[in-house]
Write a structure and sequence with these properties.
Layout lengths: L9 E6 L7 H14 L21 E4 L12 H11 L4 H15 L14 H12 L6 E5 L7 H16 L3 E5 L3 H7 L2 E6 L2 E6 L5
Parallel strand pairs: 1-4, 1-5, 2-3, 3-4
Antiparallel strand pairs: 5-6
Length: 202
């Protein structure tokens, strides 16, 4: 659905819940992380039709807690999740303070994330994924559990990414979020594409 002409757009998916979600875009994440963890690749999902090719860096945030170890602290999970995104320990150390500051978790960064609320997990996940400018940012309902002020902060970051030419793939139940964030919208119903066009028209 994305080609070379889509390099600087934001695409929104609006889907009918209860079928195949978020498997449709989990293919993007699993294949990317299989490359990052080539020594111990996870089970890879293959597309039912067509082919997938990756160029550049991908930053996926699909489900709260994805890529985290709930027995580790927030700080330790920054290193774990950062390495899953293909970053080196040195790169992560260089951005560590900025990630902690962005997440606004304060002293909780030293606590095991099993004690985190869904909103805290969302803060940490977004802070890590947005610490570096990716070529493709994949987001799945990441603002659903956040508070209003942090959501506005994330939206500003998304706008900065768009201005920098990052392609954004956003899955959301919120039609307003798709309207505010995206330049192209895809409407999926039970795995079938019903519409593809400008957000205001779809």
């Amino acid at each position: 659905l994305l080609d070379e002409e889509d390099a600087d757009i934001a695409v929104g998916y609006d889907w009918h819940g209860g079928y195949g979600h978020p498997d449709h875009i989990r293919v993007h994440e699993v294949l990317h992380r299989a490359v990052a963890l080539a020594a111990r690749p996870p089970r890879v999902l293959e597309p039912t039709t067509g082919t997938m090719r990756f160029d550049g860096r991908i930053a996926p945030i699909l489900e709260l807690g994805t890529g985290f170890d709930h027995e580790l602290t927030g700080r330790e999970n920054i290193f774990l999740n950062g390495m899953l995104l293909g970053r080196t320990r040195r790169e992560i150390r260089e951005r560590l303070d900025a990630i902690v500051d962005y997440s606004e978790l304060g002293d909780f960064i030293e606590s095991p994330i099993r004690a985190y609320s869904s909103g805290m997990l969302g803060r940490l996940g977004f802070a890590i994924a947005s610490a570096w400018t990716p070529d493709l940012l994949i987001l799945d309902e990441v603002f659903a559990a956040g508070d209003a002020s942090f959501t506005r902060k994330c939206e500003k970051t998304l706008q900065d990414f768009r201005d920098a030419g990052v392609t954004i793939l956003l899955v959301s139940h919120s039609a307003q979020l798709v309207l505010d964030t995206c330049t192209r919208a895809l409407w999926l119903d039970h795995g079938h594409l019903l519409a593809d066009g400008k957000p205001g028209e779809v």
